[in-house]
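Training component of the fellowship. As part of building independent skills, the fellow (R.M.) carried out the full modelling exercise for a liganded target. The chosen ligand was 4'-deoxy-4'-aminopyridoxal-5'-phosphate. The inputs are recorded below so that the supervisory panel can assess the work.
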Amino acid sequence: MNNPYESMQTALHELSAQGNLRTLSHALHEGRYLYAAGQKMLNLSSNDYLGLAANLELRARFLENLTPEDFLPSSSSSRLLTGNHPAFDELETALARLYGTESALVFNSGYDANTGILPAITEAEDLILADKLVHASLIDGMRLSRARWHRFKHNDLHHLDRLLAEHAPKHRHIIIVTESIFSMDGDEAPLSKLVQLKQLHPNVLLYVDEAHAFGLRGHRGLGCCEEKGCIGEVDFLAGTLGKATASAGAFVVCRQVTRDYLVNHVRPFIFTTALPPVIAKWSRHVLHLLPEMSERRQRLNTLSRRLHQVLREQKVKCPSTSHIIPLLIGDSARAVYRAEEMQRHGFYVRAVRPPTVPEGTARLRLSLRADITDEEMERIIEEVAK
Ligand code: PMP
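Fellow's submitted model of the complex:
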């Protein structure tokens, strides 16, 4: 008879032997710095790309107008019961207005949105075609759906075109799924071309996860679809609120009919307690200021380009075209060692290992942030060059 606890222990030993065991570390935050193991380090591992989560002034301005009545730390119910506080409507109205879409719907997290929407919008006679490198939440969404699914080679339009030509006539609907900036490689999807491909087939829809671009790209920070002028062509444009916009939750902007359908079908929307209304208010507060944050976006862009250029000069292969900069190491134990070395030198960088990334592609993942000083940037470059 197999002892379940022994099986778990064996699995943990195996992960440890491969250098892939995950543990929770303790970290004390002070703005953009982090203290761990007695060391003060610049945080290059968070998704606080604009430095807004570290910004006390932003929080102080929000708190100035917050009354005990407004400070609602719990919704106490699903939005379909009594949890639909006006703060959610205000946030969704603001999102739809900014994007110029008919509507928006807020979810408790990006994970909920991605795992909830894909199963809700597909049936057994549908097909999902997802980029090979999409996030785990999208993969889990596909796994939960009744549709067949297939992954096309990363950013390979020819492969996708072939799959569409072969499968579009045989399926009720096809959903193309991609990220605009890929979370682990920091490269970008060819959005305009994806839109063109989708338009060749009347039964094909496009789902774009802008988790790592929302707040950062485009004139008003709405993401890569704004930058490429294709917001109106994307059927499901998803963004997360817990990254550049320093809050929590996620949203999709879409047609009204889509929103009404999602409210009736997305299980992680229907069967969960809504986010605390105070979080929706805070998201609204940050969103209101987002269009005016071009200077921060520009700064992040300048820093990213500087590092890309250094890597090019040093002939380091790096797919990134964004603020997410992976330094490929390969071996997991070696990646952990390099991350610890950077930590000793004052930069909190983590190793990303399988299964988060494919086997043999363990890497350091640098998340640049707009509040890095010039002096810090030069030191980062020195570290990377080692
Ligand atoms: N999509 C992508 C591309 C992500 O990287 C993440 C989280 N890292 C998510 C969705 C999930 O978002 P959330 O953290 O809000 O659950």
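The panel noted the following from the submitted structure. The mean pLDDT is 96. The first helix runs from residue 4 to 17.
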